[in-house]
Amino acid sequence: MGRLVSILAPLGIILVVGIGGSFVLHAIKPEPEKADEARAGLNVFAEPVRRGDLHLTVEAQGEVRPRREIVVSPQITGRVAYVSPDFIDGGFIKKGQLLVRVEAADYELGVVSARSGVASAEQALAREIAEAELAQQDIKDLGLDNASPLARREPQLAQARAALDGAKAQLKDAELALDRTAVYAPFDGRVRERNVDIGQVAAAGSTLGRIFANDVVEVSLPLDDGEMGRLGLPLAFAATKDQPGPKVTFTANVAGKPRTWIGEVVRTAAAVNSMTRQINVIAELKDPYGAGADGDAPMAPGLFVNATIEGATIPDVLIAPRGALRGEDQLFIGDAKHGKLSIRTVDLVFSDTDGAYIRSGVNAGELAIVSPVQAAFDGMSITVMERLEDGTVKVYEPEEDGKAATAAATTATQGAEGTPQ
Fold first, then answer.
1. Which residues form the Multidrug resistance protein MdtA-like barrel-sandwich hybrid domain (predicted)?
2. Are the C-beta atoms of residues 297 and 257 closer than 8 Å to each other?
């Protein structure tokens, strides 16, 4: 018996120690971490649809050109005796300013000779008038009633009068030639180029230079039919006081700085270009070197400018992100409450880089998905995420067990299967 006790006692002690140890270990072991349940569906970014006004614009490009530009040419031939110091490339000129003068000596002699001819013709006419009066008196004294016109010296008198008229015409021609030895500016403007100098013989009709008026410059902007429709312009448009043309904002870099000028559309070209199927819209800027300039930067001829033409305004449209538009007229809408994707066909008015403008098919405040979604279908499970202005991401939790959906803010670096387009 004692031997049995000696055998069982150690076994009992071991059993008691084992059971007690297991209770102690169970009591002190840490609770297992509960992993968050993974969200169901694809993570997508979305942006809310909002309401606003659509200001239609059309972008175009063109080269600035003066409305009036002429070639300076003399009407007579002669040696150049004077050239205005302002008649140089880039020079400013005034209306009526003398630009070039041709030597006038030969033409002054022509005027003197023509005046002499007039004096001789006047003397001949006076003599003929006196002789005609004597002939009339002789016919009366002789009592002749049927004297011929030649006897009354009527043809001779008519010839003398015609000779005087011819002499006066020659005098006017000589004086006109003398006046044409001076070439004057027909308008205020600038000199584009000069091709003459003192001592050079200039022939009638030769090119002395080119000048243009600086009161108005034009830009021809090619537009297609759709762009004309956005502007609300007919093919035969001409601006009037009661119906002014659309406002145009011109931009270009001048001397390394962005510059802006404000003009307006004044007319359309007479015909559609048969090669491009476009029509040119002519926009003008008044006083490009003065009030119309951007500070010290005029909109000079030859400058290539971008033009933004203001079109019609459509009030109260729905505006979705441009990246949310799928195809021509579809949006993917994220139902944050139920975590589902909805494919909508919308009535699209217009789209550009700033957004898609819609009449109907979606409601303001709905979330338009901008992330790429492969093989999308109605009711597809998604988790909607919205990137906020402060850089954080708002995650919309789908509704569970009758509770409203909640939203949590996480850092903007939180992973997602899609990124905005």
1. 70-209
2. yes
